[in-house]
Design goal:
The protein is of the alpha+beta class and about 180 residues long. The chain contains six helices and seven strands. The radius of gyration is 18 Å and the shape is globular.
C-alpha cells in the first residue's frame, strides 16, 4: 500500500506521510484479550518458560513476547490490578526500582543509547493486556529505525528471546550468581 502525501489534502500541509492500515480496525474496535491473564500465569511457570528476567517481592520483569525492539521488557506487579492508581506504595516503589534496574541491565547487555518507558492504562489507551498493569521498557539505539516494519511487516530482532532472557538475568543489578 502506498503512503499518501499530505499535500493532497485541505488544510495546512505537514511533513508526515500517511500509511493507511484499515486491517487494524478490527483489533482497534474489538481487541483481543486472552482467556487467562498472561501476567498472572507467568509467575507460576519457570523463568525460562515465562521469559521472566527477574522476580522481586511485589513485581517481576519479563520479556515482551511481541517486542517493539530487541530487549523490550515489561515490569508487572504480581497482583492483578488494571491501573497505576490501584497499586500500593510498595508496588509503585518496586516497579520504579525494577524499571531502573531494567535500564541498567539493557545498557550492559546491548549498549542501549536510550529508552521509551510507558504504561498504557486501559484498552482505549492502547493496552494490549488492559486488565493487568504493566510498564514497558523499550531500549533504543541510534539509527535503530528501519523500513522493515512498514514495508515488509517484519521486525528485525537480532537476539533470540531465550538467549536475551539469560543474558539479562545474568547481569541484573543486585543479582547473586
Amino acid at each position: 500500500m502506498e503512503a499518501e502525501s499530505s499535500n493532497d489534502f485541505g488544510g495546512v500541509p505537514d511533513e508526515f506521510e500517511r500509511l493507511w492500515t484499515p486491517q487494524r480496525l478490527v483489533y482497534i474496535e474489538h481487541g483481543t484479550q486472552p482467556e487467562v491473564c498472561p501476567f498472572c500465569k507467568g509467575p507460576e511457570l519457570t523463568d525460562e518458560e515465562a521469559l521472566i528476567v527477574h522476580r522481586g517481592t511485589h513485581a517481576f520483569v519479563l520479556l515482551n513476547l511481541y517486542p517493539y525492539n530487541s530487549g523490550h521488557l515489561l515490569v508487572c506487579p504480581y497482583r492483578h490490578i488494571a491501573t497505576y492508581d490501584e497499586a500500593t506504595a510498595e508496588e509503585v516503589a518496586e516497579i520504579g526500582l525494577l524499571t531502573q534496574q531494567a535500564m541498567q541491565a539493557l545498557r550492559t547487555t546491548s549498549g542501549a543509547h536510550g529508552f521509551n518507558l510507558g504504561m498504557n492504562q486501559g484498552a482505549v489507551a492502547g493496552a494490549g493486556i488492559a486488565a493487568h498493569l504493566h510498564q514497558h521498557v523499550v531500549p533504543r539505539w541510534r539509527n535503530d529505525a528501519n523500513f522493515l516494519p512498514i514495508i515488509a511487516k517484519t521486525k528485525a530482532l537480532p537476539r533470540l528471546l531465550g538467549d536475551l532472557r539469560e543474558a539479562l538475568a545474568a547481569v541484573w543489578p543486585g543479582s547473586v550468581l
